[in-house]
Amino acid sequence: MANTLDPMDLKHIITLHLDGFSNRKIGSTLDISRNTVNTYMKFFKGNEYSFKELLSFDNPRL
């Protein structure tokens, strides 16, 4: 990915997803592209960790 997000933005994406926000609403809330949110959500869902586990990671590990 050419433009990577700050780890805090990644945590915001996860938190908003857990709160029931759609990818489109997450994008508009964080002022990022819906496609960027879609890309990160695919990455999050494709790994071995749950969303709650990802939130517990420190920033460098995330």
TrEMBL record:
A molecular function (GO) term: DNA binding
Highest taxon listed in the record's lineage: Bacteria
Residue ranges constituting the HTH luxR-type domain according to the UniProt record: 13-42
Biological processes per GO annotation: regulation of DNA-templated transcription
Name this polypeptide is given: HTH luxR-type domain-containing protein
Organism for this UniProt entry: Arenibacter certesii
Taxon lineage: Bacteria, Pseudomonadati, Bacteroidota, Flavobacteriia, Flavobacteriales
